[in-house]
Amino acid sequence: MTRQLQHHIGGREQPGDSARYGNVFDPASGQLSARVPLAGADDVQAAVAAAQAAFSDWAATPPLQRARVMFRLRSLIERDADALARTITSEHGKTLADARGEVTRGLEVVEFASGIPHLLKGEYSAQVGRGVDSWSERAPLGVVAGVTPFNFPVMVPLWMAPVALACGNSFVLKPSEKVPSAALHLAALLQEAGLPDGVFNVVHGGREAVDALLDDARVQALSFVGSTPVARYLYERGSAGGKRVQALGGAKNHAVVLADADIGLAAEALLGAGYGSAGERCMAISVAVCVGDATADALVAALKDKVAALRIGPGIDDLDMGPLVDAAHRDRVRGYIDCGVAEGAELVVDGRTHACTRGDGFFLGGSLFDRVTPAMRIHREEIFGPVLCVVRVPDFEAALALVDGHEYGNGTAVFTRSGGAAREFARRVQAGMVGINVPIPVPMAFHSFGGWKRSLFGPLHMHGPDGVRFYTRMKTMTARWPEGAAGAEFTMPTMR
Description:
Helix content is 39%, strand content 23%. It is α/β, with parallel strands linked by helices. It folds into two domains: 3-249 and 455-477, Aldehyde Dehydrogenase, Chain A, domain 1 (3-Layer(aba) Sandwich); 253-436, 3-Layer(aba) Sandwich (Aldehyde Dehydrogenase, Chain A, domain 2), CATH 3.40.309. The strands form six sheets. A seven-stranded mixed β-sheet has the order 15-16-17-14-13-19-20, sandwiched between helices. A six-stranded mixed β-sheet has the order 10-9-8-11-12-22, sandwiched between helices. The mean pLDDT is 96.
C-alpha cells in the first residue's frame, strides 16, 4: 500500500495547499512506496509563521531547560534507532548497518547540544572604567531553516536542528523529497521530548519550497548540504537577502597512497570508503592517488577481486552495498562509467555488468578505474556512486599538487608509515578535513565539519563550536550606575 505523507507544521501533520505530490520509491525493488506533498510558497509561509510565533517563548526558555529537551531526545532516538535505520534503508537503500551508523553519528550531535549552556556563556569584565562593567551574551537568531540531502536523511538534519534549537532558535526543515519519512519521525520524537509546538517544522518539496525559504524575511539563517551548484545558488541568493548562509557543497575526496604504505590496510580502507553506501557520501573516497607505478599495481591487484566480490542486494539483507537512491541517479552514475571508458581510462571492474543490475531495483555494481588522468571527467566531477578511480603520479609533490589542484576541498587522506610525510601532507594540503591512515576523516560532533574551496560557501562549518557561532549572534552590554546626575560628554568614551 502506498503511504500518503504530510508536512509537520505547528505541532501537527498537515496536507498542505499545493495539491502537488512527488513519488517516493523503495530503491531495492523499484516500487512506489509513498507520495509526498510538494510545498508551495503558502505552505512554507505557514511553517515559517508557526516557527515565528513559537520563537519568543522558546528563546526565553532557560538554556538548561532547552538542553533537557535534547537529553530526552537522545533517549528517544536510542529507543527508535532500529526503526529510524529501517526507514533510511527503505527510502535511501543503504544497508541496515550503515543506516544504524548514520543514526549514531546524528545522535552524537544531540549529545553535544545537550551541553549547550556551557557554550552559550558570555564573558564578564568588571570595572572596565570607573564604575563601569561590561559583559557579553550569545542571543538566538530567530527562525532558521535547514535544507538537507537524500544521502543522510537522519544525520544531516541532526547536524543542524539540535544545535539551532538548543541555542534558542525555532526551525524549519526542508528534507530531500526522495527520503522524507525520517524527518517526520524526528519531528514526532522532538514533540515527545517536550519541544513546544511550532518550534520545529517540516515542509517537503523542491526548488519552489527552497526559494520560498530564501525569500522569506522572517528566516534569519539557512543551512544546506548538497551539490556545489545548489550550495552556491543558496549562498548567493540568501546572502543577498541578508541571511546567514552555511552551504556545504560537493566533493572529490582523494586518498594519497605513498610507496611505504601498508597496501593491505589501504585496500581495505578504500573498499569501505569508496563503495560503502554505494558511494553516496560527501566524504566517500572516489580517487586513489598512487605514488609510483609499483604502488598502483599493488593497490589495483589488492582491490580488483574485492570490488568484484562485493555482496550487493537489498539493504535490509545487511550486505556490503545496497542500491542507489533512484533510477535517474543510477543512470547518471552509469553514464559516468561510459564516459570514463570513452576517455581512455582502464576499466578494471565493470559494475554495469554485475548480476545485481538484472532486477527491478536501482542497483549498480562497484566499478574500478585505473590509469585515470586529471583531465578526465571521472576525475574532475563528483560521481556520487560506487566508482573508484586510480590516478598514478611519480612522487609526493605531484600527489599533493593533484589534490590541491582540484576545485573541491572537502576531505582527503594519506596512507603512509612515515610520520614526517603524514605531517607534511596534513600541514600543506588544501582541504578542510584530513585523514592519516583514516579513509573518512569526519570529525566528532564537538568539532566542526566542513570543507574548503568550492566545497563550502560561508565562513562557518557545521555543528561543534562553529555551529553555535552560526546559530547565535553576540551581544555586548556596557553599564554604569551613577549615584548622581552626570553632565553630557562629547568626546569618545575611554577608560579612566
